[in-house]
Amino acid sequence: MKTLKEMLAEARQIVPEEGPADLQRRLAAGEPVAVIDVRDPDEFRDGHIEAASNISRGFLEFRIGAAVSDQTTPIVLYCQTGLRSMLAAKALKELGYQHVINLQGGYQKWVQSGLPTVRDQPLTADQIQRYSRHFLLNQVGDKGQRKLLRSKALLIGAGGLGSPTALYLAAAGVGTLGLMDGDVVDITNLQRQVLHTTADIGKPKVESGTRMLKALNPDVNVVPLPMRITVDNVMDVIKDYDLVIDGSDNFETRYLVNDACYLAGKTNVHGSIFQFEGMATVFAPNQGPCYRCLYPTPPPPGLVPS
To answer: Residue 229 — φ and ψ, nearest 5°?
Structure first.
């Protein structure tokens, strides 16, 4: 009968290993790699790599087909130290998976390398009911909903664009919403700016907006920012958010937000409307042009109506 040492030696003959930095580069580059955490569920809940799906070692051969249907897809397996996952990787190779890699040093080395991890909080009974329709969607599911609850989005503008955006993000369970606007509610806003009501006239938009969003979904942490975005505060404001949504109504702000997001490596979701026409664009860092790339200079004052 083979010893553990002999089984590991055999596995290393056929399973390549990569370090945490290699996996991080793959993920950052958007490579189609499946990351599988083969530890037990309680270990996974205590902390894991965000991109990972949890299939504990004892169920791997039974469940891998549902997680990775194409046997040519690269798979990176990890456990706590890299030993269980090495044996698991050998088993997948024997099942016919062509590109199986073991994470050298496992989750322990990933953490020691200072790379990001996440820890999921258990969902409450109310959350399970609230987001039940999301759990039915393959594109969201339990894993996606937990990621939404951890995510942070900054909305610049709580007006005609920011209002419906904020409501839908709050309803979807985006965990933290920064709501930035320096204006107060005017009666002329109310036919389109659905975050606010008649009783809010004269009050700061971030105040009425925060109240509406918390009433819609108490899960959401709303951060009211009663100010305008400026060259002096923009970098400090956007640094804590995963995503910036620009619902501003002037070109000065649009170019400022674009430049700050480019420098900070933040994705900028831009929208604009005029009467019955509108456009929305996602400017993702290093994945395409930015707003200034498409429109190098703003139009002359007065040419474009607001």
So the answer is: -75, 135
